[in-house]
Amino acid sequence: MVRDVDAAGTDAELARSRAPAASGWAAELKWDGFRALVSVDARKAVLRSRRGTEMGPAFPEIVAGAAQLLGTTALDGVM
User: Mind giving me the DSSP string for 23-34?
Assistant: First the structure.
């Protein structure tokens, strides 16, 4: 998977066997990992996959750490 960032700052994931060589392209190879969103409200954290599957039981340390954040927070990332 290659992440394309075009001149307008738009990114899109494209299936490719190697990174493009044209100027204006930035590439990032995707290795194994999970895309996840953690949301925190009133010190209660919920970790979900991008498709909405509950991931908290598989990653309790992430949920425990996120629950310490103050206020309402949402974090998106790859684990």
Answer: TT----B--S--
